[in-house]
Design a protein that fits this description.
Blueprint (H helix, E strand, L loop, with lengths): L5 E6 L2 E6 L10 H15 L6 E6 L4 E3 L4 H4 L4 H20 L4 E5 L2 E3 L1 H8 L2 E5 L3 E3 L13 H9 L1 H10 L3 E2 H6 L5 E3 L1 H16 L3 H14 L4 H15 L3 H11 L10
Parallel strand pairs: 2-3, 3-5, 4-6, 5-7, 6-8, 7-10
Antiparallel strand pairs: 1-2, 8-9
The structure holds acetoacetyl-coenzyme A (CAA).
GO molecular function, one term: hydro-lyase activity
Pfam family, one: ECH_1
InterPro entries: ClpP/crotonase-like_dom_sf (IPR029045), Enoyl-CoA_hyd/isom_CS (IPR018376), Enoyl-CoA_hydra/iso (IPR001753), Enoyl-CoA_hydra_C (IPR014748)
């Protein structure tokens, strides 16, 4: 797939998406958001993709936020349309059947932090910095940051980070539960690839069902979430992978799961 602001690479079921506007620190302009929207729709229909890695071009930034040169010309109406495009693009990530890992190689500020938060989990370089600096621009986060950050780290911590526009380093972000792993810059992509390969070897139906159960379940009460889990557990048996996985265990051999 060819894009103007994205690099798309696919190898053995693992897709790597590189946001590619390094001169603007990969800032999310309307065109890039639209390309991500198109790409996520295509991924949703591609049963050959097991895992997606999302990263930023260059050694400085994952994404330094929404493109401020576009924000500077917006009014209330166009800002709502812009926020809507960004929010719906990011909402697609949770709906994809395959895991999406944010590989945060540098600044993840504003919309960049929001994009990382929208992914299923985050691996970060020791050099990465996270923050929602919108208040310094007279704005608030508009791509889900007030919602996803509060859900991830709690309302009080989210409000402190938003109100002060404080930037935090990867290790602090990990301590807050924002980031799963912090790695030296030269090992970041390699480790993310290893995790992706581990996931890619699992049964794709069971991975998709686990992802959906977590994302849907976290929004509802425990009883309702557990009910969804039970239904998803039942659905696992509609795939030959459940028979293969359990038989392989009993036969003391390695399971070979289906490709789709
Ligand atoms: N939008 C547009 N351009 C950006 C940008 C952004 N968010 N962030 C950086 N750039 C551009 C700079 O304008 C600069 O371009 P020129 O070389 O043409 O001048 C280039 O990227 C390099 O940036 P700096 O020279 O500023 O690099 P630095 O190392 O001195 O600083 C930085 C790096 C701390 C990340 C700084 O660039 C910065 O603070 N960026 C803005 C961060 C921000 O406020 N993000 C929130 C945006 S609002 C938002 O995201 C709203 C929302 O939720 C929807």
């Amino acid at each position: 797939m060819e894009f103007k602001n994205l690099i798309y690479e696919k190898e053995e079921g693992i897709v790597r998406i590189t946001l590619n506007r390094p001169k603007a620190l990969n800032a999310l302009n309307a065109e890039l958001i639209s390309e991500l929207n198109v790409l996520f729709d295509a991924l949703a229909a591609d049963d050959g993709v097991r895992v997606v890695l999302l990263t930023g071009a260059g050694d400085k930034a994952f994404v330094a936020g929404a493109d401020i040169s576009e924000l500077a010309h917006m009014d209330s109406f166009s800002a709502r349309i812009f926020a809507d495009a960004g929010q719906s693009m990011m909402a697609k990530i949770a709906l994809l059947p395959m895991p999406v890992i944010a590989v945060v190689n540098g600044f993840a500020l504003g919309g960049g932090c929001e994009l990382a938060l929208a992914c299923d989990f985050i691996y970060a370089s020791e050099k990465a910095m996270f923050g929602l600096p919108e208040e310094t621009l007279g704005l608030i986060p508009g791509f889900g940051g007030t919602q996803r950050l509060a859900r991830r780290v709690g309302a009080a911590m989210a409000m402190e980070l938003i109100f002060t526009a404080k930037r935090i380093k990867a290790e602090e972000a990990k301590a807050l539960g924002l980031v799963n792993r912090v790695l030296p810059p030269e090992q970041l992509m390699e480790e993310a690839q290893k995790t992706a390969a581990t996931i890619a070897a699992m049964g794709p139906a069971a991975i998709a069902l686990a992802k959906a159960a977590v994302h849907r379940g976290i929004e509802v009460d425990l009883i309702s979430g557990s009910y969804m889990e039970k239904e998803a557990f039942g659905l696992c048996f509609a795939s030959p992978d459940a028979k293969e996985g359990t038989s392989a265990f009993l036969e003391k051999r390695k399971a070979v799961f289906s490709k789709t």
